[in-house]
Amino acid sequence: MRRSHLSLPLLAVVAALAGCPASDATSFLSITPEEPDTTDDLSLEVFVAGEATETVIRWVRDGEAMDSLDDAETVPAASTNRGELWVAQVTVLDGATEADSGSAQVLIGNAPPALAAATLDPATATEGTTLTCEGVGFTDPDGDTATIRYQWFVDGAPAGEESTLSGGSFDEGELVWCGATPFDGEHEGEMVLSSTVRVGNSPPAIAGAVITPNPASVRDTLGIALTGWADPDAGDDEDFDARWFVNDVEVAAGTTLPPGVTMRGDEVVAEVRPVDEEATGPSVSTDPITVGNAPPSLAAVTIDHDAWLSVYRAVPSGWLDPDGDAEGYVFEWTVDGLPAGAGELLAPFPLSEGQEVVVTAFPDDGLDLGEPVASEPLLIGAQIVASPNTWSFGDLEVGCSATQDFIIENLGVAPGLIQNIGLDDLGQSGAVTMTPVTTPELLLPGESLTVTLTFLAEDLAGADVQIVVETDSSSTPVLLVPVTAGAHHGPTEVASFLAAADQYSFPLASDPVEATLTVEHNGAPVTLFTWDEPSNTVWLDSSLTVLADDVVDVTYALMANSCAPNGAPVVVLDILSAGGECDQVTMTGVDSSDPDGDPLIFEWSLDAVPAGSALTSADLLLTAPPDTLSFEADMPGDYGISLTVLDAFGVGSTASVLHSVAAGLNGANSPPLVNLGSLDPLFETLVSCATDAYGVVTCPACVVPMVFTTEDVYDPDSVTLSFAWTMSNDSGSETLTVSPDGQSADVAANVPGDATLVGTTTTGSYELLLEATDCEGASGSVTVTPTWACVWQ
Questions:
Q1: Which end of the chain is less crowded, N or C, counting CB atoms within 10 A of the terminal residue's CB?
Q2: Edge-to-edge strand list for the sheet holding 702-709
Q3: By C-alpha distance, which of 147, 260, 150 is closest to 194?
């Protein structure tokens, strides 16, 4: 325990107690510092009150007078040691008489040690590094033994108190340093800090790698499977690169080796290096694999047959062997699913009507069999078919007819006996007739005969036609032929007459069809009229009053004047504007036509859209008449559009297109980048107040215009954007106005004037949000906080 210094006027006190008169001179003294150690000089301060002729100073160390320091006011630090008690004795002389004396003392304490520096080793580190901290340049004024205490810091947080710190205590990207504090057994000195080290990326490592698949052939894409992946840096993805060697020659680099590089018998090795985003680890080599045989493949096999000789031959096609081996096959035959033989030929092998023959071919390169391929079943016997199985001719004009040939043929492997060919016109009442056919008739395989049907227009009722073919087999082919429409008359004609007074007869220029006549008198329908067919004249009933210049219109259909069937329209679908993602695509059928000159009806349909598209038929924009179509492509990809063009009789033709729309600049959609310049723009308006001749001050209203545009908004995909502006947290003085296209916004702050405002400034602020959205729904936004000011002067 340290003692405090002593400062007393002792002789004055003693004299007072003895009843002696006190001296005129009194002294006070102190030693600084009050708690010194061996690094401190001792300084004595003496203050004498009264008259004194001389002051005598003596120093005593641990009871021993230090003559060399007589009358010295300072004891150098080099003269002191820890634990010593130093006393300063002061005597004040008044002439030759001692006037006063006193003393002060201090105990020399321990001096803390010091370090010159702290070092951190190594200078670079990863999560696999152990760092070492060392305090250097230890000094202690008292000569104490050096002890150093350590403290580690990771991003400023304490992390350990040993001289080393392992990588488990820090992560990639963190900042690490240490502090060293000297200790002499009693006191700690000042902590010194080391330099810092930023923890770097640790390269990954793998225990091994193997080539997959194994075994492999020249058809396979070779890959690599890693084993024992290790990366001290949490969050790094497993990745690697590789160099490929075939027969010790490097042939490629990458994570895979594609087909076509190797041949059968080649030895393949890969040198694999683990990688992360920043570093590459040590490489390992895979065990070699030997490229094996690639089995051959076959596209198809068919059966060639001779029905008369009961010989069946397998005919394979589409041989493929990546190793270039010679073509070879193994064949297996089945009849009705049961094994029937092997080899290229199945002969002689008499079969019965209705049995099915199948041959299965295995491609064989002499080393391996490829995947088997089976033929279509061959049905033994005749196969009588009739074609076409659909047909339409549209409407026919009255008085005309149309014909259609039907082919009846034997597609089987044996002769077929046609016993009868019949016709059922299904209620057409004789409108359809068939050329006579002599039956029975034997059709050999591949032979055919033709039947012609004649359709009479005026008797057609629009139902189907049925042909019945009776054969000697258990099956009876029946063919339904759609008759899509009935008869129609010729073109319509209107005869317009300017009547004389009491005129009731009106001759027609062309022969009409009586049932289609309509008559109007001065625009009103007339029901009482007759048509005199011999004179081709229309007579009005005498009950009708006909005045001079009355208008009489007779509408009638002409008789057939052409027996050509109604032709289907020719549809032409053109793309006027291909468009891109979020752009307008325009298609037109304006060049479509009808061979009969009929007016056309256009019908559009949306058949397909890319995945993720929200486009529907309701989004198709049509012209009037709708011969042109537009739509906005909301996604890249294929859009299926069909155009059907119909004539006046409902006969139509259709054209379809699968239109591919290109993606934006980046392929994958990126959200727009929104910017409005400074995040806190300042807008200011100066308002001049006026004073009239009577000293009345008036200040006009202050309007602060603030204009914002989207000129700094950028979309990486260069697609169409829509904009939305929102104002909030306003002071109540602001008004937001947005342009119709959304590409600019005006905000006006309006503050009423007041004479009291002269020399003041009115301010306000608000938040303005701009959100930009592209056509795929991706959006970006920015909020600015403008400040406005009205300066009244």
A1: N
A2: 702-709, 744-751, 734-738
A3: 150
Highest mean pLDDT: which range of 44-48, 435-439, 567-571, 702-706: 702-706
Does residue 507 have a cis bond before it (omega within 30 degrees)? Answer: no
Q: Report the candidate in 59, 147, 72 with the shortest Cα–Cα distance to residue 105.
A: 59
Report how far residue 451's alpha carbon sits from residue 458's, in angstroms, rounded to the nearest whole number. 22
CA–CA distance, 236 with 633 (Å, rounded to integer): 39
Residue range 356-392, pLDDT digits in tens: 999 999 999 999 999 999 999 988 888 888 887 766 6
CA–CA dist 205, 688 (Å, integer): 76
Contact indicator for 760, 676 with CB cutoff of 8 Å? no
From residue 561, alpha-carbon distances to 537, 557, 596 in Å are 20, 11, 13
Residue 2's pLDDT is what? 35
CA–centroid distance for 454 within its chain: 62
How far apart are alpha carbons 526 and 519 in whole angstroms? 5
Single-letter residue type at 687: V
Whole-angstrom CA distances from 711 to 670, 704, 707, 769 are 18, 22, 12, 15
The closest of 227, 220, 222, 214 to 243, measured between CA atoms, is 222
CA angle (308 as vertex; 305, 310 as ends), nearest 5: 55
Where residue 63 falls (left for φ over 0; alpha for ψ -120 to 50; beta otherwise) is left
560: nearest Cα among 395, 400, 394, 393 = 400
**% of residues, the chain, pLDDT over 90:** 55
pLDDT for position 254: 92
Q: How far is Cα 357 from Cα 375, in angstroms, rounded to an integer?
A: 9
Question: Higher confidence at residue 577 or residue 319?
Answer: 319
Quick check: 422 and 408 in contact, CB under 8 A? no
| Residue whose structure tokens are 């152990």 | 130
Which string of DSSP letters, residue by residue, matches 705-752? Answer: EEEEESTT-B-TT---EEEEEEEES--S-EEEEE-TTSSEEEEEEEE-
Confidence category of residue 23, pLDDT binned at 50, 70, 90: very low
Q: Please state, in angstroms and rounded to a whole number, the distance separating the CA atoms of residues 187 and 183.
A: 6
Mean pLDDT of the chain: 86
**For residue 5, pLDDT beyond 50:** no
Return d(Cα 422, Cα 38) in angstroms, integer: 137
What is the C-alpha to C-alpha distance for residues 197 and 131, in angstroms, rounded to an integer?
Answer: 10
Q: Name the residue among 605, 604, 584 with its Cα closest to residue 592.
A: 604
For strands 267-275 and 239-246, give the pairing.
antiparallel
Q: What letter does residue 18 receive in the DSSP assignment?
A: H
CB neighbour list of residue 70: distance below 8 Å, 6 or more residues apart = 56, 57, 58, 59
What's the gap between Cα 163 and its chain centre?
Answer: 51
CA 158 to chain centre: 43
Residue count (the chain): 793
Q: Which residue has the tokens 């190793």?
A: 323
Classified as helix, coil or strand, 83 is coil
For residues 514 and 341, give the distance between their C-alpha atoms in angstroms, rounded to a whole number: 76
> Which residues in 50-174 belong to E strands, given as ranges?
54-61, 64-66, 74-75, 85-94, 97-107, 117-121, 131-136, 147-154, 157-160, 164-165
Q: Which two tokens stand for residue 509?
A: 């220029």
pTM greater than 0.70 (yes/no): no
Question: Does the N-terminal peptide bond of residue 681 adopt cis geometry, omega within 30 degrees of 0?
Answer: no
